[in-house]
3,4-dihydroxy-2-butanone kinase (Paracoccus onubensis), 703 residues
Amino acid sequence: MSRRRATALPRGEGGAAEAKPRAPLRFGDDPLLWAAWLYYEDELTQSEIASVMGISRPTVIAYLAEAREQGIVNISINGDRFRALSLARQLSAHFGLKDCLVIPAEGGTASLIERLGRAGAQGLGWHLRAGDMIGIGWGRTMLAVAEAAGDSGLSDLTVMPATGAMTADLSYAPELCATRLAQNLSARMIPVSSPAILSDPGMRDGLLQEPVLAAQLSNLTRLDMVLLGLSPLRPGSTVEASGFLTTPEENRDNYRNAVGAIAGRFYDAAGKTVPGSLDGRTIGIDLPGLLRVPTRIGVCGGFDKVQAILGALRGELVNVLVTDSATAEGILRADGIEVQRQSLTRRPPTLPGRDRDEPPVMAGMQPVKKILNDPRDAVNEAIEGMLLAFPQYLRPIGGSLRSLARAHPAPSGKVGLVIGGGAGHEPMFLGYVGPGLADAAAIGNVFSSPPPDRILDCTRQADGGAGVLHVFGNYTGDTMNFEMAAEMAAAEGIAVRSVITTDDVASSPASDRAARRGTAGNAFVFKIAGAACDRMLSLDECERIAGKANAHTYSMGAGLSACSLPETGRPSFLLGPDEIELGVGIHGEPGVMRADLMTADGIADRIIETLIEDASLGAGARIALLLNTLGSTPMMELAIVNRRIHKRLAARKIEVVQSWLGDYCTSLDMAGLSVSMLVLDEELQDFLQHPCDSIALTFCPDA
């Protein structure tokens, strides 16, 4: 399958134009692709294809021949375009969408937002009709859609923002997105002469009585379609940057059950409205009003947006979706749907004795053998074993196996360091408790955040009178529970600061660093933070240095097989024998992209090139390097990858000051590895080389 775009043959033979239906959005403006799919994948006859496409049978034959000539069809499919196409079809079928367009996860030098913007503009053009009234939300992706839109040649179009104006100084505010879209469509623009958020409900009620604003807002009930971005609820998200959530308390207390926001309205995992303090102060379309709009186009992509998109789909808040293939796979898997792997071949006859609809038996679904007793006791029994093996490093706090402190208390007057997260990543968290590192660690269930009370116990234990620094990964449960524990500690007079780790480059683009996950790069941040605390620096200074370490850390993983949870004993996702997942997380989730299996050098090149580009490294840079097994990959294979990475770095004249190799942050028994890179300056190198001693990491510079 070629990556080239197919060009259409003349409409009809002998110069006669044929009136034919428009292809579904997922095929793009590509009749060759449409015809090839109907013939090879849907198994329609040439006559049936002619009827569906509204063309003659000779035209169908010509389309199929040209599809072969242009490389669209090679009997079997191997291109990103058909993978995206099958995902679009599966999403449409599962969620009952009017239309769906999925673009490849990777696409040259253009950013994901730029490519989504072009695809969103294409989706808009697909459904646009003369005389339509179009609403548009706001955000970077909406601005990209507006900028990519072109003059359709349709008359009497009208554009308006779906909400009032933003108080924040944003280049992608609603009024700016609407203005740009109207300009590019040669459409009339209707403004909304009000802020999106008013200071109190009384002011909103008064404004709604104003004839000018009332007339403007009445147009929201006449929208034919609306373009919308979907925002997750996390620090730095569009909905927060736009000024909708002014305080963390507003987010946590009023919208703790929300998974996303659309046009400034919050919804839960089922797509239902989450009521809150903003309801009586917001000017713009609400969710019931949104559901009355015939065509609701959601344009959104990125790993961190999966739950927000899934909630919107479940609640039918969007009925046309434009996204990328990695996000599409994440949505389907998050809803418990096995992603179909398409092959563009005429299917063989059904095997005797098997129903056509019966799914094939898939390799890899057999239970994985584990050395366990009762799986429900696995975490506690493992911690008991660790305490028996390493009494010189760890002791339980108040008899709890899930709240652990360093064996020998730190001196008073020192800033305490508390870390924590779910079990299943050993030696992560409990393995980084000790002198020069953390003072305490809170442990949750497998891949689950520890509850606030355990974090509070650790915070009390670590407090030596100078305050406590919390360092934890960027996951919803960890963020919420550590924040709650910090508030409870503050009520007891303990000053707490927090640093959230965001090192995983595959989970979000560099322009949205705050959305990234915390993975094996945690080890570098724990090391730097522990050194700062051990040197008796102030709480503010420890927070600054730990935050700097996080900002200088970059990680990426690759998985050869999924992990299996103790309770299920089965892989969390399936990989073919010749497939690899790039950008895997550490909680059993698949990667952001699936690719053909590579050699060790190929994996090393793919990862280190991504990290170098993301960190903008040039000749003369100095780094610390960490190669980490995700669970079952042996040291031999890590060392082979390490050899290649060092060679590539040397060619770029990038100096490796320290190189760590081993198990630092695992994902149970996953086969694969991750590579983390800490970009050093004099200050960070000094803290990195400070002595420490723990189960996972011991550093003695004078030894």
Notes: Residues 47 and 654 are 62 Å apart (CA to CA). Residues 1-19, 75-79, 342-364 have pLDDT under 50 and may be disordered. Residues 375-540 form a domain with the Rossmann fold fold (CATH 3.40.50.10440).
